[in-house]
Every structure is written in C-alpha cells, then in structure tokens.
Write a structure and sequence with these properties.
Blueprint (H helix, E strand, L loop, with lengths): L13 H10 L10 H8 L3 H14 L2 E4 L2 E4 L1 H7 L3 H21 L2 E8 L2 E8 L14 E3 L4 H9 L2 H10 L12 H14 L2 E4 L6 E9 L5 E10 L5 H22 L2
Helix pairs in contact: 1-3, 5-9, 6-8
C-alpha cells in the first residue's frame, strides 16, 4: 500500500465518493477487490464497503468471487445518452460497409479531453485482434482518430495534449511536440489522419473526420489492422467517403 502522502484525498460528499469508486475501474480492469478500490480512491475500507454495497443494489456494480466489477446498470444508463446514441445509430451502416470492404476493425471515436474515446466498433473473425474496445480510450497523439481531432480542433487542444506529455507507447510513437504538429498539419492537408504502429506494435490505422451541420468535427471513423497488410493511402478515400456520407446525414437530420 502506498504511503499516506501518496494516497488520493477522499472527497467529502457521498455522491463524489460513489463516483470515485466507479471511476477507479480502468480500461483493462475486469474486477477489483475491496482493498484495491479503497487504495485507489483513498476511502477507508468500511466506507468503501458500504458504498459498494449500495452501488451493487442499484446495479452499477456486480459482486464477484474476487471483489467487484462494473454492472449492467451503467451500460443501460450509457445507452440513454442522446447525442452519442444518435451518432452511433447513424454511423453503424457506414461502418458496416467499411467492414465488408476491408474485414478489419472499424472504429467510431469522439474527442475526450486529451484522448480519443471509442464510441463504437465493428469487427469480425477475420479482423486483426487489437487492444481497442468500446468505451476505451487512447492518447490523441498516437492514434489516427486523435490526430484528426487535433488537426481540426482548436490550438488549445493541441496545447493541452502537449502539456499532458506525449507518452511513448511504442518505438514509433511521436513524442516531440514539433514533430506532432507537423504530422497534424499533414493530416489537415490530406483530410485524414494516419497511425503507423504508434499506439500498438504492428498495428496501423487511417481515420477521417465527421462534421456536424456547423462544420465542426464531432467524431472520426477509422480502419485499423496489421501494418503489414493495410495500404493506408489506398484505404483513405474509402474512409473519407464514409465519413463524408455520415456528415451529410447528420447535417440533413440536424443531429
């Protein structure tokens, strides 16, 4: 257990404490024990245990033999978010068309602070096995979708990403702010972003922007697969066509 000075300070309100327990689950955490949850949140074990029981009763968590895991109640609640639900429903036909053409992983992502958040994913048995999952996130600086958001975003977004630190995920991750700005400028010129084994060794991607009716980038569609198999520049027109078709539908429907 970390020394007291390194533990997070527990929030005061009951609501904030409950939310902190939910937020303690990382992208790869299947289940967490009471001890780990108390350590990550800075809550005393008795307090954490009481709140965990209330979250289980509500359906936000499920009890397991080793502790707790996120529950179906959170999934149901997430499906009620109107903006993202409408975006996913509109995007799925275009994503499925891209999958039929490539048999690779097709992502719909949205910007989230300094990350790219995967809102939907279409894949199959022939798709490259990769780390991404719906609800997961990766740093913007090393993903094709993230570079799209930086290319069409405000200077503040680029500044925030650079100030957060350009973590090296693979030997090919761009970690110099100047080089990242050059790569993002090229993405804006081309109309699509590229990731060449920058987030996962052996895996590359190409992504194109999705605009709303005000021509603001709200999402990106990407194709991701083995670097040795994907011809990114050849795939780029198909990805851009799907993204532009979705943009037109969103503008027409006022979504």
């Amino acid at each position: 257990m970390p020394p007291p000075e390194h533990r997070p300070e527990a929030p005061k309100s009951v609501l904030a404490r409950g939310l902190r327990l939910l937020d303690a689950f990382g992208a790869t955490d299947g289940e967490l024990s009471l001890s780990v949850l108390a350590e990550r949140t800075g809550l005393p074990k008795p307090t954490a245990h009481r709140l965990l029981n209330e979250l289980v009763a509500w359906g936000g968590l499920e009890r397991t033999s080793g502790g707790y895991r996120l529950g179906i109640g959170l999934f149901v609640l997430g499906q009620r978010v109107p903006r993202h639900r409408a975006l996913r429903e509109a995007a799925l036909p275009y994503m499925e068309d891209l999958y039929e053409a490539t048999h690779e992983n097709i992502h719909l992502a949205v910007p989230s602070d300094t990350d790219t958040l995967f809102l939907e994913k279409v894949n199959g048995r022939r798709s490259t096995p990769i780390v991404s999952r719906v609800g997961g996130r990766l740093p913007a600086h090393c993903t094709a979708t993230g570079k799209v958001f930086l290319a069409y975003g405000t200077p503040d977004r680029m500044r925030q990403v650079c100030e957060a630190g350009l973590a090296r995920l693979t030997p090919r991750t761009v970690i110099m702010p100047g080089l990242l700005r050059q790569e993002v400028a090229r993405a804006r010129e081309r109309g699509y972003g590229l990731n060449r084994e920058e987030a996962e060794v052996g895996v590359s991607a190409v992504a194109a922007p999705v605009f709303d009716r005000r021509r603001t980038v709200i999402a990106a569609i990407s194709v991701t697969g083995w670097a040795r198999d994907l011809e990114l520049e050849r795939l780029a027109p198909a990805v851009r066509t799907a993204a532009m078709a979705l943009s037109r539908e969103l503008a027409r429907d006022g979504t």
